What we know:
Distance between the termini: 28 Å
Structural class: mainly beta
Number of domains: 2
Mean pLDDT: 93
Largest sheet: 6 strands, antiparallel, barrel
Strand content: over 45%
Number of helices: 1
Order of helices and strands: EEEEEEEEEEEEEEH
Shape: globular
CATH class of the largest domain: Mainly Beta
Number of strands: 14
Radius of gyration: 15 Å
CATH architecture of the largest domain: Beta Barrel
Low-confidence stretches: none
Amino acid sequence: xxxxGGSFYYKGERCTIGAVILLKGLPYMVTVSHxxxxxxxxxxxxxxxxxxxxxxxxxxxLALIELPPVCTFEITELGSAAELxxxxxxxxxxxxxxxxxxxGTSLLFLGFQCxxxxxxxxxxxxxxxxxxxxGIISSITLDTCMGIAxxxxxxxxLEGQRSGG
Length: 165
């Protein structure tokens, strides 16, 4: 099943699905765009199927991949970040606790325990609070133990813009 926190493969590397959303009634997988070399048109494999990157939103480091109707998927429940509260980065390899330090309109700033930091393959992993995805991890800074995530409000606005036509 294709779902938030699951894996896909690009050029032999495991990557993480940040969310699955509906745009104009069609299912799309959302992840960070920096994992792709070319961007739009790049090929990846998820759930045994070859798919193509549909569009890149460079301003937000997001990639959208349209899912074929025959796929089994789970739509991601999005939430809003609560500042100074615990959160968790989750994927099918591990879960890493963090804290939301600051939550802006488009970015979340996260504090991690320095001995338990996300790894390069964790890019695109969902950040959860109260079981809902509040963001997708985009980058980390090892020397400060901080991370930056794209806010779920950006993903929600995509749903609104695209479904509104």
